[in-house]
Amino acid sequence: MAYSSRDANYVMNVHGRWETAAEDERCIAWAREFFARSQPFASSGAYINFLTQEETDRIAFAYGATWNRLVELKSKYDPTNLFRMNQNIKPV
């Protein structure tokens, strides 16, 4: 199974919303601070579908121990990266 954190008791998604662009800086800062402060209580994983398009650096982290095998399979069965939507596993 690609998703490796099935033993987690809870899932938390920090998902902020606000009304105007003028609130961007304050609200993004709040969400990031909340996320950072909750890290000590979290498992060592992330749910891939909660990642934003900007969080490409966390894709391997989200897949955990299965990452290397997924890259191997992607390289074998999709070397041209046809299936590249959402959080992409790039072939090598």
In a few lines, what is going on in this structure?
The protein is mainly alpha-helical and 92 residues long. 34% of the residues lie in helices and 0% in strands.
Describe the structure.
The protein has 92 residues and is mainly α. 34% of the residues lie in helices and 0% in strands.
Question: Span from first to last CA?
Answer: 21 Å
> Any idea what the shape is?
flat
Return the structural class. Answer: mainly alpha
Mean pLDDT: 87
The description of the largest β-sheet is: none
Order of helices and strands: HHH
Question: What's the total number of strands?
Answer: 0
**Percent of residues in helical segments?**
25-40%
Helical element count?
Answer: 3
* Rg result: 16 Å
Low-pLDDT runs: none
